[in-house]
Here is the input.
Amino acid sequence: MSKNVYFCLMYSFTEENYLKAIYKLQEQSDMAINTNAIATAIQTKAASVTDMVKKLSEKKLLKYEKYKGVELTHLGKRIAIETVRKHRLWETFLHNKLNFSWDEVHDIAEQLEHIQSQELIDKLDEFLGFPSHDPHGDPIPGRNGVIQQNNFILLSELSVGESGIISGVVNHSNLFLQHLEKNQLVLGKKLLVQEISAFDQLVKVQIEDKHLQQLSNEVVRNILVKKLS
Amino acid sequence: MSKNVYFCLMYSFTEENYLKAIYKLQEQSDMAINTNAIATAIQTKAASVTDMVKKLSEKKLLKYEKYKGVELTHLGKRIAIETVRKHRLWETFLHNKLNFSWDEVHDIAEQLEHIQSQELIDKLDEFLGFPSHDPHGDPIPGRNGVIQQNNFILLSELSVGESGIISGVVNHSNLFLQHLEKNQLVLGKKLLVQEISAFDQLVKVQIEDKHLQQLSNEVVRNILVKKLS
DNA sequence: AAATATTTTTAGACTTGTCTAAAAATGTAT
DNA sequence: ATACATTTTTAGACAAGTCTAAAAATATTT
Ligand SMILES: [Mn+2]
Ligand SMILES: [Mn+2]
Ligand SMILES: [Mn+2]
Ligand SMILES: [Mn+2]
Here is the structure.
């Protein structure tokens, strides 16, 4: 490439992916992000990461000190968040308009998020009715880069007798998403915790005032709920 | 790149662009396509074209003989048509759903046409109601690669007293499209040729049984109409 | 047919992004 | 403090795609 000329400053497919990965790691760990973590996240080798972070550093997208890891600059964070915004808006489009299931949208959105057009994203946002969350319950950053933080809690944190509405997932793997869908554990469903087994931690929940279901520890630790009063 | 693994055979952004450009040249001229023509179409240099056609030739996407120009193979043509299909479906989406005007859609579709997902295109097609034509009146190839050929004629070919419906454009430049839009000469409008000046070839047309407009030779030679009876 | 002009190809270099293997730095255990 | 282990960086190479300048082939004039 290096050919396509745009009116505004542009970052490559690859640069955006690095920034997004570093941003997500930064959200989790809060410390400087080390080379290996980035390599793992982006499925590449440490040597490649070193090369790339040098370039991103020269472009003022992150601060890099040899052997000390990296930290996004304000600009780098801004680009990362814009990419997340595009990703989640496209996921919402794919799910809400094209009827893809929530486990199918991510891979396609990984491609769509790199389409360069501010106007496209604005119009897509409007077309979707300015959604606040993507199909996995993750908040969609605003045009201004502000992310409305969820106050969801883990389903595993609910006590017996408490109820909540399924509002997100921690694990985003296709396997987990398909499992939830198969068991009708989709966004918006209301759950009431009826019993938590002292022996094996199995959680018995009542779904939407109807049937009961036993949920494994693995499942309840990966579902986010909005607690009801 | 070279990283993204897909389930089916994949062609790069660049390869698709070459195939599409060669396909369009082939449609026009019907002879073997020469290096310079491709270079001009794709806005690159002849030397780059030579390199690329060698690669495409090795991949059996076209037949290439030194100094003799190139010709797409069946496979190459198939990929080119698939890319055109994607391009025109995305243009239709941008126009019909996101309210982009017909002069804004092309550049964004140039990016979107390279998104890799057969299922995405199928679902987009369905979402759009299986459109037969894009916002410029160009036919959208079917899944099977068949293109329904238009039997439109140039507005300049209509005689005095004949009428037609605006159905496409020859010139796709933004300037021309904007000009037409400004003068309400959009797809679907019915025109009646009232007078053709013997002196300067200006064509006086009546638009939708209402107001009259004088159209330059340059304009009438670039509008396609479906002739009425 | 020879001279001239144009087109196409080659040769060699550059950029972006990747890799492996080796070297250097940092961290941990004894 | 020394040895061992891990992480990170460097060095050098590769692939895709592009470029310029020069050489080779083809086309057009005279
Ligand atoms: Mn996703
Ligand atoms: Mn998501
Ligand atoms: Mn177009
Ligand atoms: Mn079009």
Summary: The longest helix of chain A spans residues 74-96. The two ends of chain A are 54 Å apart (CA to CA). The first strand of chain A starts at residue 62 and ends at 65. Residues 52 and 109 of chain A are 23 Å apart (CA to CA).
